TrEMBL record:
Residues 170-204 are annotated as: Disordered. Residues 172-189 have a biased composition (Basic and acidic residues). This is Translation initiation factor IF-3. The gene is infC. It holds the Pfam family IF3_C. Its main location: cytoplasm. It comes from Streptomyces chitinivorans.
Length: 204
Protein backbone atom coordinates (compact mmCIF):
# COMPACT_ATOMS: atom_id res chain seq x y z
CA UNK A 1 0.00 0.00 0.00
CA UNK A 2 1.13 3.53 -0.75
CA UNK A 3 1.76 5.75 2.26
CA UNK A 4 0.60 8.77 0.25
CA UNK A 5 -2.95 9.99 0.86
CA UNK A 6 -5.54 9.93 -1.89
CA UNK A 7 -6.19 13.30 -3.48
CA UNK A 8 -8.83 14.82 -5.77
CA UNK A 9 -10.21 12.29 -8.31
CA UNK A 10 -8.52 9.36 -6.52
CA UNK A 11 -10.97 9.75 -3.60
CA UNK A 12 -13.79 7.23 -4.19
CA UNK A 13 -16.52 7.82 -1.57
CA UNK A 14 -19.98 9.40 -1.89
CA UNK A 15 -19.39 12.03 0.83
CA UNK A 16 -16.62 13.40 3.02
CA UNK A 17 -16.20 15.37 6.24
CA UNK A 18 -14.61 18.53 4.88
CA UNK A 19 -12.04 20.75 6.60
CA UNK A 20 -11.39 24.17 5.06
CA UNK A 21 -8.01 25.69 4.11
CA UNK A 22 -7.63 27.40 7.51
CA UNK A 23 -8.62 24.32 9.50
CA UNK A 24 -12.28 25.32 9.86
CA UNK A 25 -14.91 22.54 9.93
CA UNK A 26 -17.18 22.76 6.86
CA UNK A 27 -19.12 19.58 7.72
CA UNK A 28 -20.23 16.50 5.79
CA UNK A 29 -20.64 17.28 2.08
CA UNK A 30 -21.00 15.22 -1.12
CA UNK A 31 -17.68 14.42 -2.80
CA UNK A 32 -18.69 16.39 -5.91
CA UNK A 33 -19.29 19.50 -3.79
CA UNK A 34 -15.91 19.10 -2.01
CA UNK A 35 -14.11 18.79 -5.38
CA UNK A 36 -15.98 21.86 -6.64
CA UNK A 37 -14.82 23.87 -3.59
CA UNK A 38 -11.24 22.68 -4.15
CA UNK A 39 -11.38 24.05 -7.72
CA UNK A 40 -12.83 27.35 -6.50
CA UNK A 41 -10.01 27.81 -4.00
CA UNK A 42 -7.43 26.50 -6.52
CA UNK A 43 -6.42 23.84 -3.96
CA UNK A 44 -6.36 20.05 -3.70
CA UNK A 45 -8.83 17.87 -1.84
CA UNK A 46 -6.66 15.63 0.34
CA UNK A 47 -7.89 12.63 2.34
CA UNK A 48 -6.33 13.06 5.80
CA UNK A 49 -8.25 10.38 7.76
CA UNK A 50 -9.20 7.53 5.42
CA UNK A 51 -10.55 5.25 8.18
CA UNK A 52 -13.06 7.77 9.55
CA UNK A 53 -16.72 7.42 8.59
CA UNK A 54 -17.09 9.39 6.40
CA UNK A 55 -13.40 9.99 5.54
CA UNK A 56 -12.00 13.38 6.56
CA UNK A 57 -10.67 15.50 3.70
CA UNK A 58 -8.93 18.87 3.79
CA UNK A 59 -8.52 21.62 1.23
CA UNK A 60 -4.80 22.36 0.84
CA UNK A 61 -1.96 22.97 -1.60
CA UNK A 62 -0.73 19.36 -1.67
CA UNK A 63 2.53 20.12 -3.53
CA UNK A 64 3.49 22.74 -0.93
CA UNK A 65 2.43 20.40 1.90
CA UNK A 66 4.65 17.58 0.55
CA UNK A 67 7.62 19.92 0.14
CA UNK A 68 7.29 21.30 3.69
CA UNK A 69 6.91 17.77 5.12
CA UNK A 70 10.07 16.64 3.29
CA UNK A 71 12.01 19.66 4.59
CA UNK A 72 10.88 18.98 8.19
CA UNK A 73 11.88 15.32 7.91
CA UNK A 74 15.28 16.33 6.50
CA UNK A 75 15.84 18.82 9.34
CA UNK A 76 14.86 16.18 11.92
CA UNK A 77 17.37 13.71 10.41
CA UNK A 78 20.09 16.37 10.41
CA UNK A 79 19.54 17.09 14.12
CA UNK A 80 19.26 13.45 15.07
CA UNK A 81 22.10 12.32 17.28
CA UNK A 82 23.79 9.07 16.33
CA UNK A 83 26.06 7.86 19.10
CA UNK A 84 29.08 6.30 17.47
CA UNK A 85 31.47 3.87 19.16
CA UNK A 86 35.02 4.78 18.24
CA UNK A 87 37.83 2.29 18.83
CA UNK A 88 41.33 2.94 20.11
CA UNK A 89 43.96 0.16 20.31
CA UNK A 90 46.92 0.27 22.73
CA UNK A 91 49.80 -2.01 23.63
CA UNK A 92 50.55 -2.74 27.33
CA UNK A 93 54.09 -1.33 27.03
CA UNK A 94 53.18 1.79 25.05
CA UNK A 95 55.77 4.58 25.09
CA UNK A 96 54.81 7.96 26.66
CA UNK A 97 54.62 9.85 23.35
CA UNK A 98 52.32 7.26 21.77
CA UNK A 99 50.19 7.23 24.91
CA UNK A 100 49.74 11.03 24.75
CA UNK A 101 48.80 10.82 21.05
CA UNK A 102 46.22 8.07 21.67
CA UNK A 103 44.87 9.90 24.72
CA UNK A 104 44.42 13.00 22.50
CA UNK A 105 42.24 10.99 20.14
CA UNK A 106 40.15 9.66 23.05
CA UNK A 107 39.70 13.22 24.36
CA UNK A 108 38.53 14.38 20.92
CA UNK A 109 36.04 11.51 20.58
CA UNK A 110 34.57 12.14 24.04
CA UNK A 111 34.27 15.87 23.32
CA UNK A 112 32.29 14.98 20.18
CA UNK A 113 29.88 12.99 22.38
CA UNK A 114 31.01 9.56 21.11
CA UNK A 115 31.71 6.43 23.13
CA UNK A 116 35.21 5.00 22.95
CA UNK A 117 36.10 1.30 23.08
CA UNK A 118 39.67 0.94 24.33
CA UNK A 119 41.38 -2.32 23.40
CA UNK A 120 44.68 -3.42 24.96
CA UNK A 121 46.36 -5.99 22.69
CA UNK A 122 48.60 -8.56 24.42
CA UNK A 123 51.23 -10.47 22.49
CA UNK A 124 53.38 -13.45 23.49
CA UNK A 125 54.46 -13.31 27.13
CA UNK A 126 52.44 -10.13 27.73
CA UNK A 127 49.38 -12.37 28.07
CA UNK A 128 50.68 -13.57 31.43
CA UNK A 129 50.72 -9.93 32.71
CA UNK A 130 47.07 -8.76 32.42
CA UNK A 131 47.66 -6.31 35.29
CA UNK A 132 49.76 -4.17 32.90
CA UNK A 133 46.75 -3.66 30.66
CA UNK A 134 44.42 -3.10 33.60
CA UNK A 135 46.68 -0.39 35.07
CA UNK A 136 46.97 1.32 31.66
CA UNK A 137 43.20 1.39 31.24
CA UNK A 138 42.73 2.77 34.77
CA UNK A 139 45.30 5.48 34.07
CA UNK A 140 43.55 6.48 30.83
CA UNK A 141 40.14 6.56 32.54
CA UNK A 142 41.56 8.87 35.25
CA UNK A 143 43.24 11.12 32.65
CA UNK A 144 39.94 11.74 30.82
CA UNK A 145 37.53 11.63 33.78
CA UNK A 146 36.47 15.26 33.19
CA UNK A 147 35.13 14.28 29.76
CA UNK A 148 34.02 10.67 30.18
CA UNK A 149 33.26 7.82 32.55
CA UNK A 150 33.86 4.07 32.55
CA UNK A 151 30.72 2.61 31.03
CA UNK A 152 32.07 -0.93 30.82
CA UNK A 153 34.85 -2.00 33.21
CA UNK A 154 38.03 -3.64 31.82
CA UNK A 155 37.49 -7.28 30.94
CA UNK A 156 39.64 -9.90 29.29
CA UNK A 157 38.53 -11.07 25.85
CA UNK A 158 40.97 -13.70 24.55
CA UNK A 159 44.28 -11.91 23.88
CA UNK A 160 42.70 -8.50 24.37
CA UNK A 161 41.43 -6.47 27.32
CA UNK A 162 38.53 -4.13 26.60
CA UNK A 163 37.05 -1.12 28.37
CA UNK A 164 34.32 1.26 27.13
CA UNK A 165 34.30 4.97 28.00
CA UNK A 166 31.08 6.96 27.72
CA UNK A 167 30.97 10.76 27.26
CA UNK A 168 29.53 13.01 29.99
CA UNK A 169 28.22 15.24 27.20
CA UNK A 170 25.30 14.11 25.05
CA UNK A 171 25.86 13.89 21.31
CA UNK A 172 23.23 16.57 20.64
CA UNK A 173 24.98 18.99 23.03
CA UNK A 174 28.35 18.28 21.42
CA UNK A 175 26.88 18.90 17.95
CA UNK A 176 25.28 22.19 19.07
CA UNK A 177 28.53 23.37 20.67
CA UNK A 178 30.49 22.46 17.53
CA UNK A 179 28.05 24.46 15.38
CA UNK A 180 28.32 27.47 17.73
CA UNK A 181 32.13 27.32 17.70
CA UNK A 182 32.12 27.10 13.90
CA UNK A 183 29.80 30.13 13.66
CA UNK A 184 32.03 32.07 16.08
CA UNK A 185 35.15 31.25 14.02
CA UNK A 186 33.38 32.34 10.85
CA UNK A 187 32.29 35.65 12.44
CA UNK A 188 35.84 36.23 13.70
CA UNK A 189 37.30 35.64 10.21
CA UNK A 190 34.78 38.08 8.73
CA UNK A 191 35.69 40.73 11.32
CA UNK A 192 39.39 40.28 10.56
CA UNK A 193 38.66 40.52 6.85
CA UNK A 194 36.71 43.77 7.37
CA UNK A 195 39.39 45.20 9.65
CA UNK A 196 42.21 44.72 7.12
CA UNK A 197 40.90 47.18 4.47
CA UNK A 198 40.24 49.76 7.22
CA UNK A 199 43.88 49.52 8.37
CA UNK A 200 45.08 49.85 4.76
CA UNK A 201 42.98 53.01 4.33
CA UNK A 202 44.38 54.44 7.59
CA UNK A 203 47.94 53.82 6.41
CA UNK A 204 47.18 55.45 3.05
Amino acid sequence: MSAEPRINDRIRVPEVRLVGPSGEQVGIVPLAKALELAQEYDLDLVEVAANARPPVCKLMDYGKFKYESAMKAREARKNQAHTVIKEMKLRPKIDPHDYDTKKGHVVRFLKQGDKVKITIMFRGREQSRPELGYRLLQRLAEDVQDLGFVESNPKQDGRNMIMVLGPHKKKTEAMAEAREAQAARKAERQQQGNAAPAEERAEA
